[in-house]
Each structure stands twice: as structure tokens, then as C-alpha cells.
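Notebook entry, structure prediction.
Reason for the run: the old model in the group folder had no record of what sequence produced it. Starting over properly, with the input documented here first.
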Amino acid sequence: MDIILVPGFWLQGSSWDNTTPALIDAGHTVHPVTPPGLESIEAKRAGIGLRDHVDAVLRLLDSLPAGAVLVGHSGGGAVIHAVADARPEKVIRGIYVDSGPLGAGGSINDELPVVNGEIPLPDWSVFEEPDLRDLNDELKAHFRQVSIPEPVGVAQDKQVLHDERRYQVPSSVICCEFSAADAQRWMDGGEPMMAELAKMTDLELLDLPTGHWPQLTRPKELGELLLQLVERR
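New structure, fully documented this time:
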């Protein structure tokens, strides 16, 4: 099965390298995406918006005649949800890694500090303690070294959706800095940030307790959990 993996902010497709072996060993084909503007520090980021990231994944999905499983980490969850909206018949499953679907009119994060027209990885003090769980000094240094500034438009653009068939795409959320029980409680309580997720008709919530970057802090466990979900038909 083809699996498209979309990283969150500041990360390239290589961020999935320690997660994908379980999928590859099981015979699946992985497609880690490096979104436009994240190719290198020198890449041009001016004018790149959320839709550019969505369109890049759409082009990849359209090249796979049998469709694919989509995996989106953090801000990548907004991307795969827009792809599911555009091609609901081609998405076998959407897997949100410490993330969720972004509804129409929402932005991924319009509060991140902008520096010289782009968004570099901020100081660790910007993040909450649960985000940084298990992200030790060595992993922080690695993340800082490989990070690429995020295009402003990707963080601030409004999500555009059209097709409510997206709610019928089988979907899973891997809960890391928040638990599956938390997510369920928020949905039951009508929390606005969970409104899109609550509309999913085929939804599963799973726990992987760690911080916001499980592909760095618990990559093997994440890969095994993804494999379980990919093979769940």
C-alpha cells in the first residue's frame, strides 16, 4: 500500500526516516513529503501558502492510481484534511499524528513569531511543557540543526474546504501530548477546536504518550502504530 507522510512545521520528509522501517519491512511503499519551501535553508519561501502544500500532496496522490493512506503530523494534519476534501475517493485512511483536521476558515497557527518574512523554529520557551516531553537536549539540538523556516502563508492562510465526503474518510488520531480520553471529552463537550473531528463518521483515537514530535522521541513505536492502522481495513 502507498503511504504519504506529511511532516509538521520546520521538518522535511527525512524526519520520518526512523519511523518508516516498520512500514517498509511489511512491504508498504512510503512517500515522505518535503513540502514546498522546506527543501533547504536557501529555498525560496516568499509567496508559498497552505494551498501550495496541499497541491504538492495532491499531485503525489494523483500519481498513485490505487490511492493512498495519508499521514499528517502537526500542521501536516491540516494539509492531509484538505487533500481528503479534494480527493475523498482516493484517501484510504487519514492518520493525524498529534494533530487533527482543520476546519474551513481556520488557520494552522497565526501566532508564531515571524522573522524576516518567515517563521524559523522558535525558542523552546514558546512551547508548552507537554510539547517537549521526551525531547531531550540531544534531540533538541538535532531538531534545531535540521529545522527549516516555515513559509508564513502556510501558518496563517485560511483553510478552504468544499466536499463533506471528507467526513466519511476513515480517520485515526494518534494522541501524544494529549490523550485519547482528553480528545473524546473535548469532542463530547463541543470544543470548537474539535468540531471538525467530531463530524468524522469513522474515527479512532489512539494513545502514544510522548511530546509533540513522536517521530523524534518515539519513532519505532510510532512506526508500529502506523503499521497497525495502515493494515486495518
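Summary: Strands lie at 2-6, 29-32, 68-73, 91-97, 118-119, 150-151, 171-175, 203-207.
The old model has been moved to the deprecated folder.
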